Amino acid sequence: DQQVKQNSPSLSVQEGRISILNCDYTNSMFDYFLWYKKYPAEGPTFLISISSIKDKNEDGRFTVFLNKSAKHLSLHIVPSQPGDSAVYFCAALINAGKSTFGDGTTLTVKP
Amino acid sequence: EPEVTQTPSHQVTQMGQEVILRCVPISNHLYFYWYRQILGQKVEFLVSFYNNEISEKSEIFDDQFSVERPDGSNFTLKIRSTKLEDSAMYFCASSVGQAIYGYTFGSGTRLTVV
């Protein structure tokens, strides 16, 4: 039962343009969502989060949007930089419990 | 910047042997976790630990698995009798508060069971 899905295994964008990473979930009980970034041979790094009571959270170049009715969230990176090239995971929580991760999307930002 | 340290980075073990994976979480963190990622698959929750006891565990975390915080700094994951399907990257993580604040992950231990 895949409760958190990232349907695009990979995304390639040009430096300076916007990267949009998508995540869908099926469990309406999820009340908190997080995005992590992972470089090879490293553990995931926390990027940004959003509570289900909000529809947008922004931190510098990173913005997360949440559409509860569609059970969809997205991470926008503007402008994209080559150093952003990594695997991006979305994760969802219920009542601050365990994190359920998506499969990840590999972002490649081309110079 | 404080980091979560995991040792060893790579462990090879024979099927049926016991392994202990070690982690040193960030010193002022209160919540501790183990996750694993089988090659090509998603990151999966194993167990969370708070106030010296398991607060939540997944169905993966069966009787073969145990966790300990023996001395206030180390956090260990023990697999009593390893199976081939235990081969994975094991990540330790810690957080100052609950998971909504995001975890700090270690770099992982790659466990290979042969």
Question: How does the SSE layout of this entry go?
Answer:
The complex is a heterodimer of chains A (about 110) and B (about 110).
Chain A: E1 4-5, E2 10-14, E3 19-25, E4 32-38, E5 45-51, E6 56-59, E7 62-67, E8 72-77, E9 86-93, E10 100-101, E11 105-110
Parallel strand pairs in A: 2-11
Antiparallel strand pairs in A: 1-3, 3-8, 4-5, 4-9, 6-7, 7-8, 9-10, 9-11
Chain B: E1 5-7, E2 10-13, E3 19-24, E4 31-37, E5 43-50, E6 53-57, E7 65-68, E8 75-79, E9 88-95, E10 104-105, E11 109-113
Parallel strand pairs in B: 2-11
Antiparallel strand pairs in B: 1-3, 3-8, 4-5, 4-9, 5-6, 7-8, 9-10, 9-11
Largest sheet of chain B: 7 strands, mixed
Average pLDDT of chain B, to the nearest integer?
93
Instruction: Kindly report how far apart the N and C termini of chain A lie.
Output: 38 Å
Strand content of chain A: over 45%
Oligomer: heterodimer
CATH architecture of chain B: Sandwich
Main sheet attributes: strand count, strand direction, barrel closure of chain A: 6 strands, mixed
Percentage of helical residues of chain A?
under 10%
Structure class of chain A: mainly beta
Provide the domain count of chain A: 1
Coarse morphology of chain B: globular
User: Total number of helical segments of chain A?
Assistant: 0
Radius of gyration of chain B: 13 Å
The CATH homologous superfamily of chain A corresponds to: Immunoglobulins
The computed structural class of chain B is mainly beta
